[in-house]
Specification:
Length: 424
């Protein structure tokens, strides 16, 4: 079987790595891929939003399955474009990817179907949002309605910050048209958990849990990023919580999408908060999380191609997901200055230290070959170093040990990934 993975970050590297283990797969292409992915797949210089070229390539190369990983192409209809050309594709169609593509849509869906989430109001006009904020209880959360690279969420401690937030999103348009509409949401406290799941339109199979670290600096300080590290499983996500979520959140979401005529096939990523009043949905994503995927897939026992196909064919009820009884920690190695200004093009050394070492992985997020054939940094998040362990503490020790094997100028990482493990 020949597959084409769309995307070029750490998530896609983990997907390609997992797909490469399937005995069904004999060739993998990745568009555009990166220098790490190039060890497992043929990288093709086609952008993630260039559907026309993707379809042309898939037809010319008789691709059996396309996996669309990032949010932007999913929201813009990459899977619809493939299907229209008669190509099998894994991921939600445009009318279902709206679950992530519009925060207002997802909040309205949860309200309509009684799925637990924070109270909210939606605003299309900045003056109405500002009026509302005159009396709304603080702190409060402002979310750009559209996709904003995971950064369109502002937590405002007081009225001044909230008003400034409206200006940032709606008037200054820091996230472009994503901020034309905003959702203003009650602030919740509790532990965050990421739960990824496979969905075939009606059946949902939940993967093992994980936790991300979104802030750039130790102690959850600094700006929001795409994610600086993850661990899996979350020790706070108990069997009891999992049962509650299946009954009140996971299956109801799949059923709600179906009832709305927006059958969801692909991955739903539930961003949850475990509040004093029970689990609440913070956000939905319509794709694998990054870097969650880098700790979840190394623990998954199933052949991922079987699962992708079952989602497309509506036969997921015949699959049970299985995960190793171990733990994984991923530490992201970034370029200092991320997520704002950072330099690129520094030679990365030490990658060969991962060769042949079971339970240690280096997933490339932003890397490329320079004209001398060196692998160099090519993004804010550069690498995800993942290690397994028999428990979370061992996995964390292993991941931080492996993070030291890598060298590049301006290398930056958080030193407290998985600190919450000590409180479990
Ligand atoms: N780790 C969060 C995300 O993938 O959006």
């Amino acid at each position: 079987m020949k597959i084409l993975v769309i995307g070029g970050g750490g998530r896609e590297h983990a997907i390609v790595w997992k797909a490469a283990q399937s005995p069904k797969v004999n060739k993998i292409y990745c568009a555009p891929g990166n220098a790490g992915i190039a060890a497992l797949a043929e990288c093709v210089n086609i952008g993630v939003m260039d559907f026309e070229k993707q379809v042309e390539f898939a037809k010319a190369n008789q691709i059996d399955l396309v996996v669309v990983a990032p949010d932007d192409p999913l929201a813009a209809g990459a899977v619809d474009a493939m299907e229209a050309a008669g190509i099998r594709a894994f991921g939600p169609r445009k009318n279902a990817a709206v679950l992530e593509g519009s925060k207002a849509f997802s909040k309205d869906l949860m309200k309509k179907y009684g799925i637990p989430t924070a109270a909210y109001e939606t605003f299309d006009r900045p003056e109405e949002a500002l009026d509302y904020l005159e009396t709304a209880p603080m702190p409060i959360v402002l979310k750009a309605d559209g996709l904003a690279l995971g950064k369109g969420v502002l937590i405002c401690r007081n009225r001044e910050e909230a008003k400034e937030g409206v200006k940032t999103l709606m008037l200054d348009k820091q996230f472009g048209s994503a901020g034309d509409r905003i959702v203003v949401e009650q602030f919740m406290t509790g532990r965050e958990v990421s739960v990824l799941s496979f969905v075939d339109g009606k059946t949902i199979r939940v993967m093992t849990s994980a936790q991300d670290h979104k802030r750039a600096r130790d102690g959850d300080q600094g700006l929001n990023t795409g994610g600086m590290g993850t661990f899996s499983p979350s020790p706070f996500y108990t069997e009891e919580i999992s049962r509650y979520c299946m009954e009140h959140i996971f299956q109801p979401t799949v059923d709600a999408m179906r009832a709305e005529g927006r059958e969801f096939k692909g991955v739903i990523f539930f961003g949850l908060m475990l509040t004093e009043d029970g689990p609440r949905v913070l956000e939905y994503n319509a794709r694998f999380g990054d870097p969650e995927t880098q700790v979840v897939l190394p623990r998954m026992k199933n052949d991922i191609i079987d699962v992708f196909e079952a989602c497309i064919d509506g036969t997921l009820d015949q699959i049970e997901l299985e995960f190793e009884d171990n733990a994984a920690v991923c530490v992201v190695l970034a370029s200092n200055g991320y997520p704002e200004h950072y330099e690129k093009g520094f030679v990365i050394s030490g990658l060969e230290k991962f060769d042949g070492k079971d339970g240690y992985y280096v997933f490339h997020a932003g890397s490329k070959f320079d004209d001398k054939g060196n692998i160099v940094t090519n993004g804010g998040r550069v690498l995800g170093v993942t290690a397994l362990g028999s428990n979370l503490k061992e996995a964390r020790t292993n991941a931080y040990e492996a993070a030291e094997w890598i060298r590049f100028d301006n290398k930056y990482m958080r030193h407290d990934i998985g600190k919450a493990i000590d409180e479990a």
